[in-house]
Amino acid sequence: MSLAVEELAGANLKLTLLDGGSYTACSHRWIAWPDLSNRTLPENMETLPSTNHFDASARTWDCDPVKRARALAVAEGIRSLVPITPHMHALEYGCGTGLLSFALQPHLGHISLVDSSAGMLAVLEEKITANRITNMHPRQLDLVTDPLPAERHDLIYTLMTCHHIKDTTGLLRNLHALLASPGYLCIADLDAEDGSFHGQGFDGHNGFDRGALAACAESVGFRDIRFTTVFRMIKGEGSDSTEYPIFLMVARK
Ligand SMILES: C[S@@+](CC[C@H](N)C(=O)[O-])C[C@H]1O[C@@H](n2cnc3c(N)ncnc32)[C@H](O)[C@@H]1O
User: Fold this and answer.
1) Quick one: CA torsion of 12, 21, 116, 201, rounded to 10 degrees?
2) Among 161, 205, 248, which is best to mutate for testing ligand 1, by the most ligand atoms less than 8 A from CB?
3) Which helix (H) or strand (E) holds 57?
4) Which residue is closest in CA terms to ligand 1's atom 11?
C-alpha cells in the first residue's frame, strides 16, 4: 500500500492512497473509503433520469470534509447525551453514505440504516464491505410513503434529514412508533434560517425553531426533550459568509 498524501481538514485527518481510496480517522480508528468518484452507479441508475438528487451526489458525498466533520461532531454529541451500550439496536433515518453511523458503530450492537436514495445506499454498502463491518444493515425505506417496519429500536438518530420531510408531526409520530420503550430519539438538523442554506427551489423546511420542534415532539409522546448546539456550518467567504448552527435534540420515549 503506497501513501501519497496526508491532508488535514479541520478535525479530519485523511490519508489518500496512490492506488485509489483513502482512510479517514473516525472515532479513534481508520475507516477505509473506497475511491467511488469514478464508479458507475448500479445498473440503470446512470441512464435513467434521477428522481432523487441525492442519487447523483452520492459518489462524491464523502469528499466534503465539512460533512465528515459534521457527522463526527454529532456522534460526539449523541455519545455525551445518551447512555449508549453495545447491546442497543439502533436505527439511522436518512443515513446517506452512513457517515454518522460509522462514527457510532463501534459503540452499538445492531444498526439498521435506512434511506430513500438507492445511490446513497449503494455507496454505503461499498463502504461496509470495504471495512468488513458486520453490525451495519442498510435498507431502502421512505418513512413518508412506505409502511412502518415491524422492528423496534432502542435508539433512533437522524442527521440533516428532517428538514427534507414536510410533515414533521407525521415523521415524529412514525419515529415514536419505531422506538422501543424506553428509547431515545436524536435529531440533528439546521436551526431556523432565512432560506439561504438551500437557496431557491427548495421546498422543505428552512431549519427548525427549537421550541416549535420540541412542542411537536411532545405532542406525539416524547419527553425529557433537550437541545444542544453540536456544529456550525459556514457558507460563503469573509463578510459574505453566513453561519448555520446545527442543533442536536435528544428526546426520550
Ligand atoms: C442531507 S442528506 C444527509 C445524509 C446523511 N445523514 C449525512 O448527514 O451525511 C439527507 C438524506 O435524507 C434522505 N432522505 C430524504 N428524504 C427521505 C425520505 N422521505 N425517506 C428516507 N430518506 C430520505 C436523502 O436520500 C439523503 O440521503
Assistant:
1) 70
2) 161
3) helix 53-57
4) 94
Sign of CA dihedral 154, 78, 126, 122: positive
CA distance 128 to 16: 19
Using DSSP bridges, classify how beta strands 12-17 and 22-26 pair: parallel, antiparallel or unpaired. Answer: antiparallel
Question: At which residue does the C-alpha cell 438528487 appear?
Answer: 53
Percent of the residues in the chain that have a pLDDT greater than 90, as a whole number: 77
Query: What is the enclosing helix (H) or strand (E) of 138?
Result: strand 136-140
Query: What are 62-98's pLDDT values in tens digits?
Result: 999 999 999 999 999 999 999 999 999 999 999 999 9
Unique residue bearing C-alpha cell 492512497: 17
Distance, in Å, from the CA atom of 218 to the CA atom of 195, rounded to the nearest integer, reads 26
Spell out the domains of the chain, with CATH numbers in brackets.
Answer: 53-252 (3.40.50.150)
The chain-wide mean pLDDT, for the chain, equals 87
Per-residue CA distances from 174 to 40, 92, 145 (Å): 34, 13, 11
Q: Which of 139, 164, 190, 230 to mutate to test the pocket of ligand 1 (most atoms within 8 A of CB)?
A: 164
Nearest-CA residue for ligand 1 atom 1 is: 160
Q: If DSSP codes are grouped into helix, strand and coil, which group holds residue 118?
A: helix
Residue 25 alpha carbon to ligand 1 centre in Å: 23
Q: Closest Cα to atom 17, ligand 1: which residue?
A: 116
Q: How does 173-204 read in b/e, with b if 16+ C-beta sit within 10 Å?
A: bbbbebbeeebbbbbbbbbebeeeebeeeeee
Beta carbons within 8 Å of 133's beta carbon, 6+ residues apart? 105
